[in-house]
């Protein structure tokens, strides 16, 4: 009997406290500044160096490139860029190693789906994922050839 009274006392005491839950689908969650969410990819900046695919610990990134169609220009242009979010751990290594900042992190986290096949995202989807781009990824990288104090 004493346990029931003690439990009701705790319930009544916490009834007057402010709520700590969110009405999630109706109210967006505020994520911290350094939150690592889904990547954004800019194919125009990509030089097909494969550094992001090589450093990925889960091998979820696949990219292919082809020779530049203009014979006067050197290098490659991006052909395909895919990320399998079924195994991606959002570790941020791909963005840290990218020399041209073609891939950057966002604060988006919503990847809920009914099929695992929908977690395989291509270059077009990643390019359109341009909401909530983290600005500290861009500003914290040193510029090539610049002085580091």
TrEMBL record:
Native organism taxonomy: Bacteria, Bacillati, Bacillota, Bacilli, Bacillales
Keyword Nucleotide-binding part of the UniProt annotation: no
Residues annotated for [4Fe-4S] cluster 2 binding in this entry: 56, 88, 91, 94
Domain 4Fe-4S ferredoxin-type: 37-66, 79-108
Principal location: membrane
Localization terms from the record: Cell membrane
Superkingdom, taxonomy of origin: Bacteria
Organism of origin: Thermoflavimicrobium dichotomicum
Membrane topology per record: Peripheral membrane protein
Record note on cofactor: Binds 2 [4Fe-4S] clusters per subunit.
Entry-linked NCBIfam families: NuoI, PRK05888.2-1
Residue numbers binding [4Fe-4S] cluster 1: 46, 49, 52, 98
GO cellular component annotations of the record: plasma membrane
Official protein name in the record: NADH-quinone oxidoreductase subunit I
Entry's family note: Belongs to the complex I 23 kDa subunit family.
Alphabetical UniProt keywords: 4Fe-4S, Cell membrane, Iron, Iron-sulfur, Membrane, Metal-binding, NAD, Quinone, Translocase, Ubiquinone
EC number, UniProt record: 7.1.1.-
Function statement: NDH-1 shuttles electrons from NADH, via FMN and iron-sulfur (Fe-S) centers, to quinones in the respiratory chain. The immediate electron acceptor for the enzyme in this species is believed to be ubiquinone. Couples the redox reaction to proton translocation (for every two electrons transferred, four hydrogen ions are translocated across the cytoplasmic membrane), and thus conserves the redox energy in a proton gradient.
Matching Pfam families: Fer4_7
Example GO biological process: aerobic respiration
């Amino acid at each position: 009997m004493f346990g029931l009274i003690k439990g009701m006392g705790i319930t009544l005491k916490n009834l007057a406290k402010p709520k700590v839950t969110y009405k999630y689908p109706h109210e967006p969650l505020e994520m911290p500044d350094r939150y690592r969410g889904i990547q954004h990819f800019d194919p125009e900046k990509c030089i097909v160096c494969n550094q992001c695919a090589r450093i990925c610990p889960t091998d979820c990134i696949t990219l292919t490139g082809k020779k530049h169609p203009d014979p006067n220009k050197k290098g490659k242009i991006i052909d395909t860029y895919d990320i399998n979010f079924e195994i991606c751990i959002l570790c941020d290594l791909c963005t840290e190693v990218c020399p041209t900042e073609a891939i950057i992190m966002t604060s988006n986290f919503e990847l809920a789906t009914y099929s695992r096949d929908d977690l395989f995202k291509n270059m077009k989807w990643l390019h359109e994922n341009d909401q909530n781009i983290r600005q500290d990824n861009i500003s914290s990288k040193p510029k090539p050839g610049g002085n580091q104090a």
